[in-house]
């Protein structure tokens, strides 16, 4: 591996114009595809194989007029003039709006608060207590994400026309969902990363190269996602997560290789020699590039493992992020060397080149050595402080509550949240999380009898506030009934109610009953995520441990790496609960409404944090192993390894933290909580686990850290991350290079 990457890095450096041309063609092709193939998409929660999804599909097939997948707007009214909404002036405002909405483009149905059925029975929603809150249900013929901009503007204008009419109007539903803007957050992350790189390298040109390569990688992925919209639905979060991961790993991977390249050049002292620069780049890609390759492979495995959850939108996000990581690795081992070739000796400033020529440039900073020396002298103290500290931070995770966001978790100043609160005030929280019971009737069962039976059976279940009228479809083979829980959609009691209803109806002989609706679908998503967590961890941790076994040829190092990762994850989850669930520092971290943590957060965190944690494990410990196999004793190897790599790992961690932390202010709940959790996890993992706990335990274990059974050592392939085979290759080729130089000189 090291020898192949050496040739790739040196070749990319020498053939930089060709490499640049290939990447320009690739970028141009993908951008062209994005421009010509981009389509509007309709991302939606689809959960194959679950009861709620099967019931939803049955509704679409058997009740086509109900527009089960159509966008909805819940227009909520509150009297502001002290009179009930049934008063003539207020009623006129609502009736005018209802008539106006009937003329809306893409409209399917409008149900006024004052609507009645054929028998004269009221079917609209108007509060019994004072008649001061009412709801107009608006259903569109197309899903919310497929509605035209003109349709959305029509609704907004209609609502605006009711201002100063004595009636307060708020809008819930899925039609007016705000779209997050992430461009500013990405710029913040890039700006902080540039500052860190300038401080690390002391040269603006060198600092700019990782930024340029990372941005190019994100551009490629973003353009690819836009092109993919021509044949698949893509959610807004997919591109945002890919950008977040792409910027972080793209900058870090380039940083590690470029830092090794500068150190190799500084140690060699021949900065002005083109051949020396090419050789230094070859050695850098062969060694640091090997670590980048396996680090990227670990992240990709962790991301693709999310497919075991069998939630399409989650798999889509994971695949996009994994592709971003692959592109970041390819750019780091090919395009970065080419850019370094163009930079030439300007990769150092004039002052740095002068110090190198005078032998004064220190390519091996002493800060890392001093820190590692302190750890090896006090390993028990360092390990205990680190483990107890992270354990304390992890304590709030014991109170972790999972759920999916609804309008009740929106910011208090949003119309969605205010509509939610008005409905809760006028009708009860359960009206915000209605459930739909669907029955596929058995042959020979009378539909009206089945409807009467299901109504009576549901009426005997505690926790149900209202059981609506059950009615059959036109073919009399399916029955549907709507019910209102007593509790809100994200309440734990509602979760238990759904499971109780399913259990009660499981043995019914009239029909195959199922429960659906947005609330039931969210509950099934949470259940799927919880059920998949253990298999996912076993798959990802198992494969990653195998990679670490190949890289380090050790039994205990992969075990330490995995246990340290779990400590980081639990500490990050604890911090997440404290801020996003308990509300500690909510204003500081832009948390509008503390509440349950999103159901997909734990499994997403495990996937992403595991991959990123293994990055630092590989980058740091490969240098330790490199020193160990070259003859250093275990403690000295730790000092040497951390002396070489700790400064650049600290810089990489700071960059990754800044990129993730910037997304806390994205305005989208999933991305904001993900940015916070990942930033916290990197802080804990990079600075506490990898920089303190792991070297402390390795110092305590000594040579045992590198123990591996001889039989296993013989059968494992040697991936040569530390570059022993590469060194042999260079030693063999050295005489030939010298002969060529002599021949050239004689000519």
Can you offer a commentary on this structure?
- Strands 1, 2, 3, 4 and 5 form a 5-stranded antiparallel beta sheet that branches.
- The protein contains 23 helices and 12 strands.
- Helix 1 (2-14) packs across helix 10 (312-343).
- It starts with a helix and ends with a helix.
- The protein has helices at 2-14, 16-37, 51-62, 88-102, 149-160, 183-201, 204-228, 236-268, 274-304, 312-343, 350-357, 366-377, 379-394, 415-427, 447-459, 492-505, 518-552, 556-581, 601-629, 634-662, 669-701, 710-715, 724-746, and strands spanning 72-79, 107-111, 125-126, 133-140, 167-173, 402-403, 435-441, 464-467, 471-472, 478-485, 511-516, 597-598.
- Residues 737-747 have low confidence and may be disordered.
- By secondary structure, it is of the alpha+beta class.
Ordered list of secondary-structure elements with their pairings:
Blueprint: H1 2-14, H2 16-37, H3 51-62, E1 72-79, H4 88-102, E2 107-111, E3 125-126, E4 133-140, H5 149-160, E5 167-173, H6 183-201, H7 204-228, H8 236-268, H9 274-304, H10 312-343, H11 350-357, H12 366-377, H13 379-394, E6 402-403, H14 415-427, E7 435-441, H15 447-459, E8 464-467, E9 471-472, E10 478-485, H16 492-505, E11 511-516, H17 518-552, H18 556-581, E12 597-598, H19 601-629, H20 634-662, H21 669-701, H22 710-715, H23 724-746
Parallel strand pairs: 6-12
Antiparallel strand pairs: 1-4, 1-5, 2-4, 3-4, 7-10, 7-11, 8-10, 9-10
Helix pairs in contact: 1-2, 1-9, 1-10, 2-7, 2-10, 6-7, 6-8, 6-20, 7-8, 7-10, 8-9, 8-10, 8-20, 9-10, 9-17, 9-19, 12-20, 13-18, 13-21, 17-18, 17-19, 18-19, 18-21, 19-20, 19-21, 20-21
Protein name: MMPL family transporter
Family: Belongs to the resistance-nodulation-cell division (RND) (TC 2.A.6) family. MmpL subfamily.
Membrane topology: Multi-pass membrane protein
């Amino acid at each position: 591996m090291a020898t192949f990457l050496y040739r790739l890095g040196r070749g990319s450096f020498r053939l930089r114009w060709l490499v640049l041309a290939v990447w320009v063609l690739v970028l141009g092709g993908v951008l062209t595809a994005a421009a010509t193939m981009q389509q509007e998409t309709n991302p939606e929660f689809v959960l194959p194989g679950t009861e709620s999804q099967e019931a939803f599909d049955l509704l679409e097939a058997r009740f086509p007029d109900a527009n089960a997948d159509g966008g909805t707007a819940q227009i909520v009214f509150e009297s502001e003039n002290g009179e009930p909404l049934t008063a003539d002036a207020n009623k006129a405002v609502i009736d005018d709006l209802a008539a106006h909405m009937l003329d809306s483009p893409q409209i399917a149905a409008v149900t006024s608060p004052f609507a009645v059925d054929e028998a004269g029975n009221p079917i609209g929603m108007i509060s019994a207590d004072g008649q001061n809150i009412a709801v107009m249900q608006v259903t569109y013929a197309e899903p919310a994400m497929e509605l035209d901009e003109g349709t959305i503007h029509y609704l907004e204008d209609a609502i605006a026309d009711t201002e100063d009419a004595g009636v307060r109007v708020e809008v819930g539903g899925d039609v007016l969902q705000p779209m997050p803007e992430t461009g500013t957050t990405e710029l913040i992350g890039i700006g902080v990363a540039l500052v860190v790189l300038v401080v690390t390298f002391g040269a603006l040109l060198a600092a700019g190269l990782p930024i340029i390569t990372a941005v190019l990688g994100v551009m490629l992925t973003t353009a690819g996602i836009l092109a993919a919209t021509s044949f698949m639905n893509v959610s807004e979060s997919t591109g945002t997560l890919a950008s977040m991961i792409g910027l972080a790993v793209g900058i870090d991977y380039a940083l590690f290789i470029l830092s090794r390249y500068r150190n190799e050049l500084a140690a060699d002292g021949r900065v002005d020699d083109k051949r020396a620069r090419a050789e230094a780049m070859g050695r850098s890609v062969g060694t640091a590039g090997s670590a980048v390759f396996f680090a990227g492979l670990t992240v990709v495995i962790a991301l693709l493992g999310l497919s075991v959850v069998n939630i399409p939108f989650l798999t889509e996000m994971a695949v996009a992020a994994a592709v971003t990581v692959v592109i970041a690795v390819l750019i780091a081992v090919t395009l970065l060397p080419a850019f370094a070739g163009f930079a030439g000796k300007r990769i150092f400033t004039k002052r740095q080149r002068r110090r190198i020529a005078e032998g004064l440039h220190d390519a091996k900073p002493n800060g890392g050595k001093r820190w590692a020396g302190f750890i090896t002298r006090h390993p028990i103290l360092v390990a205990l402080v680190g483990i107890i500290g992270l354990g304390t931070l992890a304590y709030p995770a014991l109170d972790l509550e999972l759920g999916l966001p609804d309008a009740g978790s929106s910011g208090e100043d949003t119309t969605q949240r205010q509509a939610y609160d008005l409905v809760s005030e006028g009708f009860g929280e359960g009206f915000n999380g209605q459930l739909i019971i669907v029955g596929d009737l058995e042959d020979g069962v009378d539909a009206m009898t089945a409807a009467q039976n299901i109504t009576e059976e549901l009426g005997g279940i505690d926790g149900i506030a209202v059981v609506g009228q059950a009615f059959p479809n036109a073919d009399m083979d399916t029955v549907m009934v709507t019910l209102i829980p007593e509790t809100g959609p994200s309440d734990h009691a509602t979760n238990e109610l759904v499971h109780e209803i399913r259990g009660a109806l499981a043995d019914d002989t009239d029909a195959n009953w199922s429960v659906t609706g947005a609330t039931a679908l969210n509950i099934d998503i949470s259940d799927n995520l919880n059920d998949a967590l253990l298999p996912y961890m076993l798959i990802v941790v198992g494969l990653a441990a195998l990679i670490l076994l190949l890289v380090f040829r050790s039994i205990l190092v992969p075990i330490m790496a995995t246990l340290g990762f779990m400590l980081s994850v639990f500490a990050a989850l604890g911090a997440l609960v404290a801020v996003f669930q308990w509300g500690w520092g909510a204003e500081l971290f832009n948390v509008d409404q503390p509440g349950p943590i999103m159901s997909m957060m734990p499994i997403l965190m495990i996937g992403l944090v595991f991959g990123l944690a293994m990055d630092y494990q590989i980058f740091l410990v490969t240098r330790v192993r490199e020193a160990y196999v070259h003859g250093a004793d275990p403690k000295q190897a730790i000092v040497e390894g951390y002396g070489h790599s700790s400064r650049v790992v600290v810089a990489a961690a700071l960059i990754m933290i800044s990129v993730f932390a910037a997304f806390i202010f994205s305005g989208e709940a999933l991305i904001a909580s993900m940015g916070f959790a990942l930033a916290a996890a990197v802080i804990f993992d990079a600075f506490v686990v990898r920089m303190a706990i792991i070297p402390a335990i390795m110092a305590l274990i000594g040579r045992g850290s590198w123990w591996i059974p001889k039989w296993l050592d013989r059968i494992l392939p040697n991936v040569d991350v530390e570059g022993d085979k590469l060194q042999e290759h260079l030693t063999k080729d050295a005489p030939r290079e010298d002969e060529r130089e002599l021949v050239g000189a004689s000519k």
